[in-house]
Backbone:
């Protein structure tokens, strides 16, 4: 006939636990003698010291064999990405001319973004460069490269100085086209790249009259190459402003602005922001 062990009382369990913590017969503390505890402690101490030393050695080799100012490997597009300012949600700019609240956000965003391009700021952190050629620089180390001035005055009627509303009040909005930074990239292969804009899924003339600032919508070569955040911390991206003068009201337009120049790809179907940007513009009245 099967028998069952009697259930241990609470006192019995406490006695067993006390004996596990310290066994006076075998002189063991938690199942090991003091000598064994010393040996296992020394083993783990040596193990972690070796692991830390190997990690430190690997870190030392990495830091001494890589350039802290230029990436060893850049997983980048063949052409720069393009963004716009203001930067609306889902790249949709929609406003009503007669309702200032509908376009004030875009105006505030542009004023804030262009504050870094004020002449007083640029004069302190950048230099006047000779236009028309790349600005190659020598030197090595942090803050070893200077940046070329790009003042918001160069955007003229889209600078926010002549017209604080950037044309949104009159239904002639300004949009800034910005080329993303790529270290050591030389856009245009010696030819000045420029920006053009057109409408998608509509007649080409639907875009109406458009003006660009600077003239012809160009990115001067003197702002390139970009050397990186550490050697060139004061770098400010050159901009191109596009102003839509006669875009039809109460219609939804999908607009593509692209950068043109030798070696610049803007028709990659798998990268919609490579060399171009597509945004929506809806001006209501």
Residues:
């Amino acid at each position: 006939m099967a028998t069952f062990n009697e259930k241990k009382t609470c006192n019995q369990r406490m006695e067993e636990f006390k004996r596990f913590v310290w066994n006076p017969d075998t002189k063991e503390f938690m199942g090991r003698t003091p000598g064994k505890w010393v040996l296992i402690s020394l083993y783990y101490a040596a193990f972690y010291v070796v692991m830390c030393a190997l990690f430190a050695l690997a870190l030392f080799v990495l830091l001494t064999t890589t350039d802290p100012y230029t990436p060893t490997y850049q997983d980048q597009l063949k052409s720069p990405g393009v963004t716009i300012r203001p930067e609306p949600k889902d790249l949709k700019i929609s406003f009503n001319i007669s309702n200032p609240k509908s376009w004030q956000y875009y105006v505030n965003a542009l004023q804030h973004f262009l504050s870094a391009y004020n002449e007083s700021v640029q004069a302190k952190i950048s230099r006047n460069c000779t236009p028309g050629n790349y600005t190659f620089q020598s030197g090595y180390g942090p803050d070893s490269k200077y940046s070329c001035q790009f003042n918001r005055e160069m955007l003229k009627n889209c600078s926010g100085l002549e017209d604080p509303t950037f044309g949104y009040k009159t239904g002639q909005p300004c949009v800034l086209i910005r080329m993303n930074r790529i270290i050591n990239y030389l856009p245009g292969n010696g030819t000045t790249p420029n920006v053009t804009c057109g409408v998608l899924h509509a007649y080409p003339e639907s875009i109406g009259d458009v003006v660009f600032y600077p003239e012809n919508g160009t990115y001067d070569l003197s702002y390139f190459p970009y050397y990186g955040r550490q050697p060139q911390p004061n770098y400010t991206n050159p901009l191109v402003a596009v102003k839509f003068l006669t875009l039809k009201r109460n219609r939804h337009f999908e607009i593509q602005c692209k950068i043109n120049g030798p070696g610049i790809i803007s028709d990659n179907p798998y990268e919609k922001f490579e060399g171009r940007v597509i945004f929506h513009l809806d001006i209501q009245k």
Remarks:
- The helical segments are 10-21, 34-65, 100-114, 119-125.
